[in-house]
Hints:
With about 375 residues, this protein is an alpha+beta fold. Helix content is about 30%, strand content about 15%. This is CubicO group peptidase, beta-lactamase class C family.
Amino acid sequence: MHIHGYFDLQFEAVKEAFAELFNDPQERGAALCIQVGGETVVDLWAGMADKDGLEPWHTDTILNLYSCTKAFTAAAALQLVGEGKLELDAPVTRLWPEFGAAGKQHITLRQLLSHRAGLPAIRQPLPPEALYDWDTMTAALAAEQPWWTPGEAHGYAPITYGWLLGELIRRATERAPGEVIVERTARSLGLDFHIGLADSEFHRVAHITRGKGSHGDAAAQRVLNAMMREPQAMTTRAFTNPPSIMTSTNKPEWRRMQQPAANGHGNARSLAGFYAGLLDGSLLDSALLAEMTREHSLGDDLTLLTRTRLGLGLMLEQPDMPNATYGLGRHAFGHPGAGGSIGFADPERDLAFGFVVNTLGPFVLMDPRAQRLARVVGEYL
């Protein structure tokens, strides 16, 4: 496998570890970018971008980053907090009156950002096409009853997060949420990141497939068992209502829509660049970043059926949890995306890390491929 790109000679072992990923015949394409002190020390890519193995992964290849998108959304929301256009602890109903139905009148932006609002799923079955109708989804969430008393527990909201936060951003700015998030995060830093991809960019998008033959770790198996055996369970509903959530990744309508929980498109550079922008103060002032990276939720996650530790739109380091450690410092923060892509920062090393892959692994939190790469990086810093 030919490895393209650049690496500082100090990090040659990282390049070798990246190359070793492709010893697995199922691995199709991937990219890795690492910045230290704002300087790029690793920028690598390799493999194939298309379904049939005919189109090489290029320097400008992008792909669906899934929940890596959530951190961009949270940063934009916190910028609006800093400008007084949103309030962390004010009721959501101040901007979205209809949201107060079914006992939700006291839910706050902070609770939405930290997955404590009790809204990771919708009970009423929705048709597949509802996924692409913003008004249908926000109306369903406005009517939804929380699955637990808001503020008393936490459960990751894999996709409802996008409509919940996006609707608040839309009402605060009177603009489409994807445009606002991209403008405030990616465009200000010159990053190749999109929420609502133009058709003219489709030729650059890597095709996503799932790896075969692995059932993942114990956490992944718990989620899979729940989804197979309990169709009405909250965890199942979170990932399958509308039923098109799990099957739309490569569809044009998925790429076009603005779903700021799960359909951001970008590359490893955009992830590393975003976290470098958090570290150097380009995106948030120190007080807002401290709030974003402060522990808000810790313990059993009612959706993911494993222990999570959450900030505001971020997953925080859990060094004693093999499936929840970034593999570097104890203050690391970031966000994985389904199947393996991940972006994070280690403030102790002033390091920003982005890894993307188009063969999805079956892990709920951190993917072992990214963890291995991060640990090799740590040996040299």
